Every structure is written in C-alpha cells, then in structure tokens.
Amino acid sequence: MDIMHTADFQTQLTSIMETLAKTAVVEISKLFKENASFLRLEISRCTSENESLKKKCHFLEDELQCARKGGKANGTEALSCHPGLTDTGHRPAIDNVFGKEWCLNLWRHEESHVGEQEDTHLDSSVIIGEPVNLLEEEPDMVMIKEEAFDDCSSGRNEEDQDTVKESNRQVDGMPNEMTLTPLSSNESLHEQPFIPSFIKSNWARSFQVPWDRMPAALIQATSTGERVRPGPRREFVRIVVAAMQAHCPNPNLAACGDVARNIVSTYPLTFGDISEEGEQLGNGFSCLQRQLKTRVEHVNRDVLEHRIRRPRRPSMKRVGEKNGYTMKKARCKVDSYGCINWQPSSIPEGETAESLEMKRKLAAKIFQSAGPKAAELPNVDDLMQQTYVYQRHMINSCPPPTISEIEGHWPFLFTERGLCKHFKILTGIDIRSRFNETLIDKSKRILNYFSRQRLKWSEEIQSMLSEIEDANATDNNRIAISAILLMMKYFKEKDNAVFILADETSTKMSIENEISLPATPRLIMLGETLLTSSKWFVSIEGRVTHSIEDKLDFAEALSVFFGCFYVFNIEYQESASATLELIQRFFVRINPEGTKCTSKSGTSRRTGSAVQRKPQNFNTRVATFMQRLSEFEWKTIQLS
C-alpha cells in the first residue's frame, strides 16, 4: 500500500509541476513579447535608416569619384559630371583651399537635391588629397546607454550618463543610436531582469508635484510671477524630494530632470533659469534639477542601501575612442552653438559662384592696396555681407582650413570691424554694443560682490583684491580686467588660460618670435601688469591675428577675442571654460542649451591631476555664481 501511495503521489506531483512549468513558460513568453515588441520596432527603424544613409553615402561617394576623375582629366573643368553647374559655366579657379571639390558642394546641392534636408556634415566636407570613404566619416552619433538594473539605478557620478539625453544637441539631424549590450557571464536573468528605460522613467514623467503643500511665500510668488526667494525655494525642494522618494528611494539625475521640467513648465518665471534681462538660460531647469539631486544625495547620506548602486555593465567603446577619450580635431565638428545663421542653405538671390569669387578677390585686392583701415569703407561692408555664405562655407568645412588659409582669402575677417560684423550676422548680436552696454556695469557688480565679502574668499582672491586696490582700478579698462581676473580666481583657472602678458613695446613680429603662443585664442596684454595694459593683440593657432589699436578700449579687445570662438568655430579651451561661459551668458547674453567646451578630459582644480569631465547642459559653477550674485544683491537691498 505504501508503494501504491508513493507512486500516486509522484504522479500527482509530476502533473502539478508540468502544469506550473507550462503556465510559467506562457507568462514568460507574454512578458518577453511585450518587452521585445518595442525593441523590434526600434531595431527595424534603425536598420531602415542605416540602409538609407548608406545609399546616400554611396551615391555621394560615386558623385565625388566622378568629379575627381573629371578634374584629373581636364584640370579645373570638372563640371560635366554635375549638370547642376552647366548653366553657370566653369567653376571658379580658386587656389589652395577654394580649388577643391568642397567649394562646389553648396551650389551643386542646391540644384540637384531640391527639397531635401541638408546634412551639414556632408555639405561642408573637404575633399583633399587621397580618396575618402564617406562611410567611415559619418558624424558622431549620440550614444544613449540603457540602464538595465533597478528602477533607481545610476552611479554616484550619474551626471556622466543621465544628462546625455538633455545636453546633447543633434545639429546634423542624425538619429540616436541605442546601444544594446549582452549580459556578462556572471549575470543571470533572475538577478538582472530586463526593464526598458521607457518603463523605468514613467513614474517621473507622471509624477504629481505637491502644489498644495507649497509655502505661503511661494504661493504668493507663483501668483504674481515673481522670482522665489532662496528660503521658500529650499523648503519646496525638500517637499518635492520627499514626494519623489515615495516612488523611488534614490531618483537619478534624469528623473530629477523630468520633475524639474514639469515644475518649470508650470511656473517658468518663478522656478526657471532666467537671466536678469528675462532670457532663458540653457534649457531653463538645470539649476532646479541639480538642486533636487543634491537634496536626494543629502537625504540618502546615511542610507547605505540607497546610496550604493550596482556597477554598470561594460559597453563597447565607440569607434575613434582610445582609453576612454575621443580623438577629434578642435574645429572639425559642427559647432552651431548659439548661432542663428551658422550655415546658409543657399547663395544670395542674383549671385553665382563666379560673382561671389569675383567679390572675394575684389575685397582681397582692396585690403592689399589700402590695408586694414579699408575695413571702414562702406563698399567693403557690402562685399563682406554679400559673400557671407562663401565665408561660412570655407570656415565650416571639415577638415577645417587653418587660420592662415582663412586670412589669405578673407583678410578683413582679421580686422576688428570685419570680425564684429561677421559675428552679428552669425549670432544676431552686435557684440561691440553689447559689451559697451553691460561690461562696465556688471564688472562693478562683480567687484562689489567680492569686496563686500572679502573674508570668506581664498587667499588668492584676497590677494587679487589687494592688487586691484593698489592699482587704483577706477578707469573702465581696469574695472573690466579686474572683474575677469577675479572670476578666474573664483573658478580656479589660471590667468594664462585667457591672458598673456607682454612688454609694452612689443610688436606682432617680436611676440611671435619670443613667446610660445598656444593654439587656442589668447588675449595678449601689452603693459607692465595685466591691470595696467593699454594695448592688446589676439592670437590663434600660435600666431598674432588681430591688433587692437591704441584708440580702442578693452571692451573692443574683448569683443574681438570672444568673437573669434564663434566666427572661426573654436571650442572653449577646457582650462578657461568656466570664465568664457560666464562672459557668454552674463555679459554677451548668449544662452543656448549645452556648452561650447565638449572636452572629455580636463585638469582637476583641486588636485591638478588629469580627470574625466562630466557632460553638462549648463556649467554648474557658472550657474552657481550667477545665482549667488543675485541672492547677495537681493539681501543687500533688503538690508539697506
């Protein structure tokens, strides 16, 4: 009987186990199908887009090969392969840079691809020397790394990953690429369940802000559209973070960004990142996002299970990366940051390639005969404005031409007037007028901010304040120079990252022979000290390019120096990125998203060692300073 009961029990147990296994397989299959459907759609879309791009690249490669063969056979007459240019005759015979294939791309693309969206990278490609495989020169794709861990997973340095979605700007129209990495051998499906990122972030996007718990002062500010004071703002941040932690104990930076965006979209004047002139700074919610994340880290400082996250899965390095850093040229990438007319899509009405080339040569001839003073002539302004599209097409080419090549073809860009006129068309801002309006007034505010709180600053800043007092910095030039030097001390950036001191009697030739000039722009100060300088030069790529005359003041010199970064597509040097971004946002009031310094490596201001920089939408040190300056001035007004 015992044997019979045992056999019956085993039979029933087997039946139950089979039923459970079948049910589990069915449920797992359903779950997999639901999650995999989204991935199949994304993979299908990416595959079709890649195929389309490959076809376009092959077509352009064939077109360029045809043009190159024709050029070898007939010298400069290579238009037979390009019917779009037959009605304008032969292409202009331009030596050096302009004699290459790229100078035809603008006109050819306009006629042979009507209605297509232009790809800036492909339009501005320079074909020099050896044949180029276009498939290997596709612009950098924005890599979005999937977090396949728990709902709140991100590293202690989550700024390195989570801000990619907000801070990267896709100016070339290329689609994002999703990186899918397999599980390592020591990971199992049970320990690392697949949770798509769009499911994990749903709680943040649907998060309900507890508006009913706002402080009374904040309610009044939102009703009148005023800026919220620091105290009520911090109290509201604590309330919001407490509500967020009901959904996730340790929200990452991306989740804080979703909540901050929701808050700012509801009350932009009260919570948004807005300048004194009412202009939005960056994406408008970076400061609130950082404040929320700081509060989250503070609350979790003693909660070990919330603070420590699982390590990220290793991902394959992108093509072109070596030891964690991307190999790239300083001015080779598309850099339309803050520009409104970076790459004109067509030539002016009534103009042809030949007519623009004739005007370019005419302007160069005027410069050779009359010198830099000819920049004041009205007809020169007209020639430079009419050939603006031609200038941008050369400057935006990739690989970029050298500064010497640009100066050889457009010498008036290396005068103070010519560069500032170009900057106005490029950005819509008259930089000379903008500095004349804001530089002295805001410099005095910076000096007041540091001098009124002297004891709280470091020894370097206090020493700088004493030097300013000893120099009796009362004239406008010294006030402006003093403010920038103080900001460099505040950001822990060295003076020689922006300024180079030279003897008052130095000339352009002596400076180039005696001083080792860096590749990135520098403002050369002629005088005994930086504060007492009265004449200035600007250097780029190791040579002096602009000379600011004695009759001009420091505001004009700073206009030329800062304008070079935009006119010639030069990124901010990492060693002075904070100071340059402060000049950009605080003085010039150019406030796009992202930053003009994309370097992934830098030097620690604290230890001096090489570190990896975090991608940022808005330089946190610049944002913090502008916020503290505003709060200090508000408190000063209240006490007076």
Which structural traits does this protein have?
640 residues; mainly alpha; 4-stranded mixed sheet; two-stranded parallel ribbon; 25 helices; 10 strands; globular
In short:
The protein has 640 residues and is mainly α. The chain has helices at 2-74, 102-112, 120-123, 159-162, 164-167, 197-200, 202-205, 216-224, 230-244, 253-266, 268-271, 286-299, 304-307, 353-370, 378-386, 388-395, 403-409, 416-427, 431-451, 459-470, 476-490, 508-514, 554-567, 577-588, 620-639; strands at residues 143-145, 177-179, 321-322, 325-326, 499-502, 522-526, 535-540, 543-548, 601-603, 610-612. The protein contains 25 helices and 10 strands.
Task: Give a topology summary.
Elements: H1 2-74, H2 102-112, H3 120-123, E1 143-145, H4 159-162, H5 164-167, E2 177-179, H6 197-200, H7 202-205, H8 216-224, H9 230-244, H10 253-266, H11 268-271, H12 286-299, H13 304-307, E3 321-322, E4 325-326, H14 353-370, H15 378-386, H16 388-395, H17 403-409, H18 416-427, H19 431-451, H20 459-470, H21 476-490, E5 499-502, H22 508-514, E6 522-526, E7 535-540, E8 543-548, H23 554-567, H24 577-588, E9 601-603, E10 610-612, H25 620-639
Parallel strand pairs: 1-2, 5-6
Antiparallel strand pairs: 3-4, 6-7, 7-8, 9-10
Instruction: Report the principal-axis shape.
Output: globular
- Gyration radius from CA atoms, angstroms: 30 Å
Largest sheet: 4 strands, mixed
In angstroms, what separates the terminal alpha carbons?
Answer: 101 Å
Number of helices: 25
Strand order of the largest sheet: 5-6-7-8
The residue-averaged pLDDT reads 76
Helix content: 40-55%
Strand content bin: 5-15%
Structural class: mainly alpha
Uncertain regions spanning at least 5 consecutive residues = 75-102, 106-201, 316-334
Write down how many β-strands occur, each being a DSSP E stretch of 2 or more residues: 10
